[in-house]
Specification:
Chain lengths: 278, 278
Amino acid sequence: MQKKKEIKVLGNNNYPIGIFDSGFGGLTVMSAINKVLPSENLIYFGDTAHVPYGAKSRDTIVRFSKDIISFLIKNKAKLIVVACNTVSALALPVLEKILKIPPIIGVIEPGVRVAIDASKSFRIGIIGTEGTIKSKSYPKAINKLVKAKVYQQACPLLVPLVEEGLIDGEITDKVVKKYIKPLLAKKIDTLVLGCTHYPFLRKILEKNLDKNIIVVDSAISTALEVKLILDKKFLFASKNGKKYLKFYVSDNPEKFKKIGMRFFSKDITIIKKVDLVG
Amino acid sequence: MQKKKEIKVLGNNNYPIGIFDSGFGGLTVMSAINKVLPSENLIYFGDTAHVPYGAKSRDTIVRFSKDIISFLIKNKAKLIVVACNTVSALALPVLEKILKIPPIIGVIEPGVRVAIDASKSFRIGIIGTEGTIKSKSYPKAINKLVKAKVYQQACPLLVPLVEEGLIDGEITDKVVKKYIKPLLAKKIDTLVLGCTHYPFLRKILEKNLDKNIIVVDSAISTALEVKLILDKKFLFASKNGKKYLKFYVSDNPEKFKKIGMRFFSKDITIIKKVDLVG
């Protein structure tokens, strides 16, 4: 049955899923997609020449994202996953408009559904970059579905900490405490990691939270969303094909490999530097 | 006499001095140039779409710098000041080769001369970005002039802290302590702020150093170097012209204005966003 479906879509089922982020963060999403969809070919783009995105403007984020998407399409992506909350928050609506094929999905809606599922008191905390928080994408997405109290906190130092590999230790602990404090005062029962870099800090975050607070990241739920779309569009890869994971960065492939390996569950073997003009 | 010299150089004496950096950091150098040369017109470019530069590769830094220099030349810069240690360390030799006119100067050599002047024991500490430290530009430049023990420390978190305006407080204090500790153990008597962002952290750095350690930044000494070159090339602006300071950024002019104002001694009034394609 699956095979019949594949023929319908011009034989591009074994084309890869394209995933992108400003740096390492999106590897958390790639890792989840790889777990949920082990037969799929995946290509990842980390925009390490322009990292971090968090404090940059909508115009600039849209410009960077368009270039990356062009690159992924040239590399035959059958579906594009925006594995970055800042891009999802600031640029996804624009990108969706210009991009009819392939389909594109972000990380905010999937994360929001998990958070609503998890929360009992509907007092939900969001941490994210300056851009994500200012866009109010999370409160809007949550309140479209339920009536909830949403408390936001921008955490501009967390991405630099993760990009430097400082995922524990005294400094990171102090930074986390500072950001979490006002949310704890609001008696949240659910905390959304509104940035794909933050799952790397999950341990140190959980250490600083009350035990009853549920921490939500959107990686698995985004991966499940990808699965749903592939199913709907008859786009599953065949199980017999030769599977590959490829990584591209706009700068410093060596550093990406070194730090990425610590975070990504699989080996980062094929990695190339690509100059984008954006 | 001065007027006669001006005529010799095709009347471009009132053209501006072009100054650039990845973000706010170079404002420390601009401020010094403005003090030392109050009659000069100055234009500043902060590459806030690509900030930070510190962990990015030589190729990428050269590519960004070339685009900025083209912009400054289009805006008639009579002299270019690389107000960024990472660019000075990684890209200046390449940029000097491709750029015959106007003259271009960096911040490392001027800083090194002050450090050698200040040090008695010739045990000199250098703090800078990953790129600057890895390039070994400081130890090389110092040891070209004197035989000294040079101890280096990369401080990847200091630029993000300054760019977020966190120039004091407990977190910045912890970060500074961590970076400074190994240098104190080496009994340095002079510490070079090898990044134009670091003078914003001078107070908190000095608080954490032994009192006998002299802190050196290259801003004033770079400004004096600029003065020397203008003198040598008969390029001083006339004292009667209408003086201007202009600021350009590749992203977020509002943020630049808000944080820049805190740091720059003069008002940041004329500020424009420019899209570079690099």
